[in-house]
Amino acid sequence: MNQIIDRINKLLALGERGGTEAEATAAMQKVHELLAKHNLSLDDVKSSPIEEEDYIKDEADASPRQPWQDIVWTGIAKLYFCEHFKRKYKGVTSHLLVGKPSNIAVVKYVAAYVVRTGEDLARKAAAASESKRTFSNSFKRGFAYRIYQRVEDEIRKAKAGEMTDSATGTALILAPLYDRTKREIDRFMLDDGMKVRQKTTRSSGVTDRDGYLAGRTAADSVSLRSNGVGQHPVAAISGPNS
């Protein structure tokens, strides 16, 4: 398992250093493929020398008044075979993740990268606006909703067999893996006694339409596979044809 994580980290570092979006995306596509093949092998090959991981809960720092970031985290977690929830306990707000350790590591890296990118793009886009704060807030909302939509598209493609093994050219059918992971996480949460509220990704809090649309457009330029971390579908958020 450590060897896999080390390899993933090297690919992620390569993606971040890439001089072009194409280079970053290529690195993250390889990460996604590696994670997908790894999880499929654990499910299909009982003689696999890789030790199966148990599901766990883990947390990361969260901003209590930045709901757009929660949408990003929820989408990235879903892409990489995890579940995300917002947790508030004793005045401390955090991102609560449920999944396998290696997948959670990827989610933390990719989600943090996408949020940083959204913050930076919003700041630059709002510089010329008369109402910088209003524009920026709506920009971030549009950015987050579009990222989530792209995750949904990415998962749909992966389930449809539109992800291939670069070594053999054969399709990697991930529908069983996504479905199995969802069942196992639900079972883990039930056994753990976790109680969660229904989440929503509906558009709300948008007061500047131009900012919102600018955020959606900007999100299409962010690779979910590039600069991502971790495990499972670490393919860039932008799909192979996006």
Elements, N to C (H/E): HHEHEEHHHH
Spans where pLDDT lies below 50 across 5 or more residues: 44-50, 226-242
Q: Measured on Cα atoms, how large is the radius of gyration?
A: 18 Å
Distance between the termini: 31 Å
Biggest sheet, in brief? 3 strands, antiparallel
How much helix, percentage-wise, in residues? 55-70%
Q: What is the tally of beta strands?
A: 3
The whole-number mean of residue pLDDT values reads 77
Structural class: mainly alpha
Report the oligomer: single chain
Question: How big a fraction of the residues is strand?
Answer: 5-15%
Estimate the global geometry from the Cα principal axes: globular
Question: How would you write the strand order of the largest sheet?
Answer: 1-3-2
Number of helices: 7
Would you give an account of this structure?
The protein is mostly helical and 242 residues long. 56% of the residues lie in helices and 9% in strands. The chain is built from 7 helices and 3 strands; from the N terminus they run ααβαββαααα. Strands 1-3-2 form a 3-stranded antiparallel sheet. It starts with a helix and ends in a 23-residue tail after the last helix. The C terminus is likely disordered.
Feature tags:
single chain, 242 residues, mainly alpha, 7 helices, 3 strands
Q: TL;DR of this structure?
A:
The protein has 242 residues and is mainly alpha-helical. Helices cover 56% and strands 9% of the residues. It has helices spanning 2-17, 21-44, 67-79, 101-126, 132-159, 175-192, 209-219, and strands at 56-61, 83-89, 92-99.
